[in-house]
Amino acid sequence: MGHVSLWPVLVLVLIHLLGSRLRFLHGFPRSVWLSGAGGVSVAYVFMHLFPELHEGQEHMEENVFWAEEFLKHHVYLVALIGLATFYGLERSVVSAKRELVKKDSRKVEAPKGVFWVHIGSFALYNAIIGYVLFQREETPSQSILLFTIAMALHFLVNDYALQEHHKETYRKYGQWVLVLALLLGWSVGYIQEVNKTTVFILTAFIGGGVILNVLKEELPEERESRYWAFLLGAGAYAILLLSL
C-alpha cells in the first residue's frame, strides 16, 4: 500500500472534539458561520458529489446485471433513501422531545433511548464518511481536500444540532461515539477495500444525508437562519469548484 495521508481524518476528528465548544457558533439568531457552512456542504453535494454519482450510475449499469432492469436510477434512489432516513430520525427526536416537554416543561434533552438511536444512526453515517474518505486517497489531492473541507463544515452543522437536541449527554458520550465511528470507517477502508459499486452506493447515501441534515437546520422559521450567509457559502464554494 502506498503513502496514506492521515490529515483528512484527523481534521474531521478535531471538528467533532472542538466544534461544539466554539462559542461564536452559539446564540440566537442562528450563527452566520453555521449558515455559511451549510451552504458550502450543499454546494459540494450538488456540484461535485452528484456528478460523481452520474459516473457511478453508468458504472453500475455496466457492471451490475440487474441494475438496468430492476431500477434504472438506483444510485439516486440511494441518495433519496439517505435523505428520508435522516428526516425520519429527526422527526422522531423532535416528537419525543415535544412529548417530554408536555409532561415536564423543565426537560430540554431528548430521552436517553432516542439519544442512542439518534447517535447510532449518525455513527453509521460517520463510519461511511470515514470509509469513503479513505477511498479518496486514490483520487487527486485536490479532490480529497475539497471533500475534507465540505465534510468538516458539515460536521460543524451536525455537531451543533446534536448538542442542541441532547445537551451534555452529547458532549459526554455522543461526540466520542462519532469520533470512534469515523476512525473505524477509515480503518476498515485501510484494511479492506470493497468494490467500486459499493463505494458509489455509500457516496450516494452520504449525499442524501448531507442535504437533509443541512436543510433541516436552515429551514425552520424559529431558527432565524441567515439566508445571505447560506447563499454566500454555497455560491463561493460553487465558484471554487467550477474554477478547478
From TrEMBL:
Residue ranges of the TM segments: 6-24, 31-50, 70-89, 113-134, 140-161, 173-191, 197-215, 227-243
Top-level taxonomic group: Bacteria
Protein name: ZIP Zinc transporter
Organism: Pontibacter diazotrophicus
Keywords: Membrane, Transmembrane, Transmembrane helix
